Amino acid sequence: MYALIVPVLTPFVLLATVLGLSWWEDHVLPPPPVEPAEPPVEAALTRGLPGVD
């Protein structure tokens, strides 16, 4: 009897695991640090040079 229950329940156990990990990531883990958006240094250096398009 148990040999029939295990294959039937396996997808549901996997789904519950994925949903639980997703909930854990959203509610328990701290959010990633937010870095300020800065313009690339390369673009700032080439903008003022004559002859550079």
Written overview of the protein:
There is one protein chain. The protein is an all-alpha fold and 53 residues long. Helices cover 62% and strands 0% of the residues. It is built from two helices and no strands. The chain is elongated, with a radius of gyration of 26 Å. The termini are far apart. The mean pLDDT is 81.
Present the secondary structure layout:
Layout (H helix, E strand, L loop, with lengths): L1 H26 L13 H7 L6
pLDDT average, as an integer? 81
What's the helix count? 2
Largest sheet: none
Low-pLDDT runs: none
Strand content: under 5%
| Rg (CA only) | 26 Å
Task: Label the structural class.
Answer: mainly alpha
Helix share, percent: 55-70%
**First and last CA, distance:** 75 Å
E-strand count: 0
- What is the general shape? elongated
Give the H and E element order.
Answer: HH
